[in-house]
């Protein structure tokens, strides 16, 4: 991999995106401005991916993918809370729709396309089943606790937790996420390192000197700047998205899907690029780490925000969504257990993503 550390566009675009965010924040945007903002958003995404790779190359795996996943998720949480504060009744299910979309996009979309790219490159995509299996199990447990159980509890009418249940779910979700991070970064770090087709662990990028600490810190700052601009600009054009969704006659839940797609774009690009370099484990770390962080950090944050937010918080999934969730984790388990995958497994997960997107638009 040839890594250019701080090229001009990777510095300029995040600054321009933040400037656009400041100038457009809280204003109604005419269509030409929406187009410009969307272009800057795309540029900020590309810059975020670049700086994430610089930081990841400095700190190594699995810390690099963890930094990107947590950074994106923290800002995603801020976006969800902001939209819930200003969104009224329509936002009562926004957290559920966005988190569920994030799980489906990461576990099916990012994981599927990474396996497909890796299998096309090497015929067989090889990864560590111990680490990937533990990550998938944690995602499944947190997703079921946070998104399925509220449909069946009886303390409150509708698919929602009581305050005590929400607090308990938040503590357990956060606890499981932190336990996974401990296992990933300390006790069993080798389970999450990239491996070759022959099963040998890859400790770092070959023939590439890691960036200096100063360069990595600059890239970390620019990464956070780019991610803030991505989420802020996404919020700025969200009214246009909502009006477009309404004009097209689509369900309001599609807004959550679009938000998740935009926010997860940096991780998607980073995962595909890692897969193209035969770093499938890095791609899976990004996919499952993002899904886990999306739930494990969002639910506790929303639980705290509900102290001052009015109205119910609808977290429970409907029947169709639960079927898709169960199918996703069933297929994911069969994909992960062997530690090897071909284009069939990649195609299966991308097919499930297509089903999710279709049913989101036509429930």
From TrEMBL:
The UniProt record lists the keyword Transmembrane: yes
Segments passing through the bilayer: 36-54, 66-87, 99-120, 132-152, 164-183, 216-234, 254-272, 284-308, 314-336, 343-361
UniProt subcellular location: Membrane
Entry's Gene Ontology molecular function annotations: potassium:proton antiporter activity; sodium:proton antiporter activity
Domain Sodium/calcium exchanger membrane region intervals: 34-185, 219-359
Signal peptide (UniProt feature, chain positions): none
Keyword Transmembrane helix attributed: yes
InterPro entries, per the entry: Alkaline_pH_Ca-Antiporter, NaCa_Exmemb
Recorded topology in the membrane: Multi-pass membrane protein
Alphabetic keyword roster: Membrane, Transmembrane, Transmembrane helix
Cellular component, GO annotation: plasma membrane
The protein's name: Putative sodium-calcium/proton antiporter
């Amino acid at each position: 991999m040839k890594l250019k550390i701080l090229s001009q566009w990777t510095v300029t675009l995040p600054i321009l995106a933040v400037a656009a965010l400041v100038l457009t924040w809280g204003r109604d945007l005419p269509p030409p401005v929406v187009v410009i903002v969307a272009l800057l958003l795309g540029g900020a995404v590309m810059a975020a991916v670049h700086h994430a790779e610089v930081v990841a190359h400095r700190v190594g795996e699995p810390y690099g993918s963890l930094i990107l996943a947590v950074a994106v998720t923290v800002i995603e949480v801020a976006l969800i809370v902001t939209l819930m504060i200003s969104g009224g009744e329509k936002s009562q299910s926004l957290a559920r729709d966005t988190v569920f979309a994030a799980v489906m996009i990461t576990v099916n979309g990012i994981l599927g396309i990474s396996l497909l790219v890796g299998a096309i490159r090497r015929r067989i995509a090889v990864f560590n089943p111990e680490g990937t299996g533990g990550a998938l199990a944690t995602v499944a447990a947190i997703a079921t606790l946070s998104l399925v159980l509220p449909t069946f509890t009886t303390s409150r009418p509708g698919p929602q937790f009581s305050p005590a249940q929400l607090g308990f779910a938040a503590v357990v979700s956060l606890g499981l996420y932190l336990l996974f991070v401990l296992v990933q970064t300390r006790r069993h770090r080798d389970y999450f390192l990239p491996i070759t087709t022959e099963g040998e662990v890859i400790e770092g990028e070959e023939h590439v000197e890691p960036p200096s600490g100063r360069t990595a810190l600059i890239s970390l700052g620019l990464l956070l700047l780019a991610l803030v601009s991505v989420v802020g600009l996404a919020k700025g054009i969200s009214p246009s998205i909502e009006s477009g969704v309404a004009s097209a006659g689509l369900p309001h839940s599609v807004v959550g899907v679009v938000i998740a797609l935009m926010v997860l774009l940096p991780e998607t690009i980073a995962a595909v690029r890692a897969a193209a370099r035969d770093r499938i484990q890095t791609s899976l770390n990004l996919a499952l780490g993002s899904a886990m962080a999306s739930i494990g950090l969002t639910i506790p944050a929303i639980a705290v925000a509900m102290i001052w937010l009015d109205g119910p918080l609808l977290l429970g999934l409907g029947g169709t969504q639960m079927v898709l969730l169960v199918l996703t984790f069933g297929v994911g388990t069969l994909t992960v257990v062997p530690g090897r995958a071909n284009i069939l497994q990649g195609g299966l997960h991308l097919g499930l993503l297509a089903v999710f997107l279709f049913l989101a638009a036509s429930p």
